[in-house]
Amino acid sequence: MVTGRRGDWCAHVVEQHQSGINFVLLIISYILYLVIGAAIFSAIELPYERELRKELKGARLDFLSNNTCVSDAHLEELLARALAASNYGVSVLGNDTNKNWDFVSSLFFTSTVLTTTGYGHSVPLSDGGKAFCIFYSLVGIPATLFFLSAIVERLMDLLSRNPISHFHRRWAMSRPKLAIIHAASLSIIMALLFLFIPAWIFMAMEKDWNFLESLYFCFISLTTIGLGDYVPGETQNKEDNPHPHMYRLAITVYLLVGLVCVLVVLETCYELPQLKLLRRRFYKENVRELDSEATNIISHDQLSDQLPNPEDHMTNQLPVISSVSQQADTLHQNGTSGPYTPASGTTVNENLS
């Protein structure tokens, strides 16, 4: 008997705090996903890092043994300065031809800053540039988010909401099923146009990149991860690319347009009815009740708009009761007198006409 009461009490507590329990499970699942990802990356990349450290150490010892006039301290100082300059986007290899701060390169830099991609291949060198970058980003990043949201909202009507409504009326297919088909089709088309085809183009333009590296760059860039390990145009010479400024400008346009299309796909998936139902599992109870009440009110309003108004129907069916003054005027015109009787609307209308 006591065990049954405890079981009922536990079931009642779980039902009362179901959204909170789901939210805690969501946090634990996300942390577990992070830990699993870290473990997999460590298992894959750590052997390559060890091998690379071993190769660099051997190359350094070979250089010192072949150049006895260079001391280990002087070589250490030279490498430290070269690495520091490389972190600022200045390389000792061909730095006379590659300029990071001409107008087109600066335009590419501002686009990566405002979209929070941030490759890190070129950074402000001066204190004035760093201060201006802070101020420019404080104003520009919110403005960019507003700009992108306005464009995405317009494209959502054109590419998602209107097509779904059109095919829903034409094919009489359920809206949730149609939304999934549309989201999958839109994702495939956008992946072809902004991932696979550009990856093939970058593979042809960048001599040192294979298809996987090109696809990796496109994905990392359009998702605004921007690791900066692959930046197009950094290793090209004038023979391979006679128009580097046009190439960099085209990449800037590609990144901006591609980012908008990625946001459209994400917003389309976010508006799926199945995902909306899944998100409600993690809401607080008052939010879920409010959302349910709002849904019922909207459905009731839509149903009321479709059904005829009963008051209008009764008004059309019931006779119009004339006032006493109207009946008195009618009797005076006819020259008769008699007891007061309510006249129908039809009779009054005929007399008035």
TrEMBL record:
It comes from the Eukaryota. Residues 95-156, 191-269 form the Potassium channel domain. Residues 330-353 are annotated as: Disordered. The chain crosses the membrane at residues 20-44, 131-152, 179-202, 214-231, 251-272. It is found in: Apical cell membrane; Cell membrane; Cell projection, Dendrite; Cytoplasmic vesicle. It is a multi-pass membrane protein. InterPro entries: 2pore_dom_K_chnl, 2pore_dom_K_chnl_TASK, 2pore_dom_K_chnl_TWIK, 2pore_dom_K_chnl_TWIK1, K_chnl_dom. Keywords: Cell membrane, Cell projection, Cytoplasmic vesicle, Disulfide bond, Endosome, Glycoprotein, Ion channel, Ion transport, Isopeptide bond, Membrane, Potassium, Potassium channel, Potassium transport, Synapse, Transmembrane, Transmembrane helix, Transport, Ubl conjugation. Pfam families: Ion_trans_2. It catalyses: K(+)(in) = K(+)(out); Li(+)(in) = Li(+)(out); Na(+)(in) = Na(+)(out); L-glutamate(out) = L-glutamate(in). Homodimer; disulfide-linked. Heterodimer with KCNK2; disulfide-linked. In astrocytes, forms mostly heterodimeric potassium channels with KCNK2, with only a minor proportion of functional channels containing homodimeric KCNK1. Interacts with KCNK3 and KCNK9, forming functional heterodimeric channels. Interacts with GNG4. Identified in a complex with PSD and ARF6; interacts only with PSD that is bound to ARF6. Interacts with UBE2I. Belongs to the two pore domain potassium channel (TC 1.A.1.8) family. This is Potassium channel subfamily K member. The lineage of its organism: Eukaryota, Metazoa, Chordata, Craniata, Vertebrata.
